[in-house]
Backbone:
């Protein structure tokens, strides 16, 4: 079973953050690696969606959908930065 | 609001859609399709948008043997059916003329779909950004959009590599993408190209590593991985 | 409910005549879906061990040859995944957890299964003894494939299948019930499919 990447969770992230997030910058809390959310490693076929750092393999985010609500655990993420909208 | 279902090959169909209130999309984005059975069972998949911004919305779906959604979309679905969609989705794997180039586009199988949207957008906006497309496919019969790619004029070079079998007299590349093939088919790093790679995960990993090995800065290589089962 | 997609059924097998074996909300699958939270580990058998530990300290450990020398019955079981697919009559071969715990000795009410790749699952002793749990290394008459948890996985069919931890390397005896991987992210601490205990609070 192949992993995919953060492009695949585009709509899940819209559910959680209310906006497109795949182009947002992420920083791994374990190893400090930085990359766009789209380039994180995504395991989708599980009881939830597990997102891992492409550099060190640590879990960065876990998304679980329950009764129409998506919950996200970002304890593996040190930061997320979204390009600001142009006023 | 399925407008039409047109077969590209025996197992690949392009589905044109007329959703009410479609906000438009960027080249490279995808949409999510949700199917609902009579008992409420649902299945969702993502499909790259095949049409360029401004064209009638279309997705291209490959029917997978062991698929759950693709055999329905590329097999059962008919013009006049309703399809539940969400989108457009994506802000990373997108290209607009302002992003420039030259462009190196690497397609693995159905990964050619979002790249076709990019190419049509380039054509439709009159962009003169030069493009090299390398399209990897199992066989020549599996190659889609063939006639269309030959219509693109000026500044588009298309090369194919066939990995499983080749027609008699084949003069294109053979075998899976590798550094030597990329060195011939992709823009050299000195041209400061922007790369978009899409296809199965194993194809994307090999191709991306290959471009970085040729000197492409990682931030100039954009990737989109499909799962082993084709769509996401 | 969303509009029905004309003619869509999905990839479900027929459960005619088997409804009594299906917990609520489940459907029968013909295939064997591969679900994973991370990359498939590939521990060489010469490095593989299974351990019973207590608070992280090993009490007893078996190498692969030692493990293979233990009695390993064939088990036939229905399995139920929290993602709603069930597979009836699956056949496994494995060592009973009773055998392993008896050889190690234990005095704890809970265990945490730990695995290559970092996955964990919490269980009570009561649920892994009395012939309810195995460490399985064979499936359908063949060695268990890596994508399904090989060389060996935990098999606890009376609970949702996320408790049947893939790539298991041991059980850590615990005095308290702490959440494992999926339990930490909102899944039920117990996971009884017949009571539909999917999420925390169910």
Residues:
């Amino acid at each position: 079973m192949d992993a995919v990447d953060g492009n695949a969770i585009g709509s899940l992230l819209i559910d959680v953050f209310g906006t497109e997030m795949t182009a947002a910058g992420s920083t791994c809390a374990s190893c400090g690696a930085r990359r766009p959310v789209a380039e994180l490693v995504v395991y989708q076929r599980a009881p939830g969606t597990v997102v891992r750092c492409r550099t060190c393999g640590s879990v960065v985010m876990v998304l679980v959908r329950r009764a129409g609500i998506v919950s996200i655990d970002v304890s593996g993420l040190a930061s997320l930065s979204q390009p600001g909208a142009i006023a | 609001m399925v407008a039409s279902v047109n077969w590209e090959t025996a197992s690949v169909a392009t589905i044109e859609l007329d959703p009410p209130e479609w906000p438009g999309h960027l080249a490279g984005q995808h949409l999510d399709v949700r199917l609902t059975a009579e008992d409420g069972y649902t299945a969702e998949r993502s499909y790259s948008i095949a049409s360029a911004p401004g064209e009638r919305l279309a997705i291209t779906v490959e029917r997978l043997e062991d698929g759950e959604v693709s055999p329905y979309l590329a097999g059962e679905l008919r013009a006049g059916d309703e399809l539940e969609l969400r989108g457009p989705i994506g802000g990373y794997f997108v290209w607009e003329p302002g992003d420039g180039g030259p462009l190196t586009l690497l397609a693995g199988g159905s990964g050619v779909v979002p790249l076709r949207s990019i190419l049509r957008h380039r054509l439709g906006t009159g962009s003169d950004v030069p493009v090299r497309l390398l399209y990897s496919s199992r066989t020549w019969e599996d190659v889609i959009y063939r006639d269309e790619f030959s219509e693109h004029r000026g500044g588009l070079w298309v090369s194919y590599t066939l990995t499983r079998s080749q027609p008699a007299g084949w003069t294109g590349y053979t075998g899976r993408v590798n550094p030597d093939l990329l060195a011939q088919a992709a823009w050299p790093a000195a041209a400061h190209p922007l790369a978009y790679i899409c296809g199965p995960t194993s194809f994307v990993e090999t191709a991306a590593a290959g471009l970085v090995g040729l000197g492409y800065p990682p931030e100039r290589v954009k990737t989109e991985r499909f799962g082993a089962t084709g769509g996401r | 409910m969303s509009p029905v997609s004309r003619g869509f059924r999905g990839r479900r097998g027929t459960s005619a005549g088997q409804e009594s074996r299906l917990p609520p909300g489940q459907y029968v699958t013909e295939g064997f879906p591969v679900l994973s939270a991370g990359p498939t580990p590939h521990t060489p058998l010469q490095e593989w061990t299974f351990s019973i530990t207590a608070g992280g300290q090993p009490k007893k450990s078996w190498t692969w040859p030692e493990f293979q020398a233990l009695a390993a019955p064939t088990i036939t079981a229905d399995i139920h995944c929290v993602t709603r697919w069930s597979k009836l009559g699956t056949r496994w071969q494995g060592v009973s957890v009773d055998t392993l715990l008896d050889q190690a000795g234990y005095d704890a009410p809970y265990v945490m299964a730990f695995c290559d790749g970092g996955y964990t699952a919490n269980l009570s002793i009561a649920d892994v003894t009395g012939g309810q749990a195995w460490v399985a290394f064979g499936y359908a008459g063949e060695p268990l494939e890596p994508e399904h948890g090989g060389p060996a996985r935990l098999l606890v069919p009376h609970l949702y299948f996320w408790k049947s931890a893939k790539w298991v390397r041991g059980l850590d005896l615990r005095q308290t019930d702490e959440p494992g991987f999926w339990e930490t992210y909102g899944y039920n601490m117990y996971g009884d499919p017949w009571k539909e205990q999917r999420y925390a609070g169910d």
The first strand of chain B starts at residue 2 and ends at 7. Chain B touches chain A through 21 residues (CB under 8 Å). Chain B has two domains: 2-89, 97-226. The radius of gyration of chain B is 17 Å.
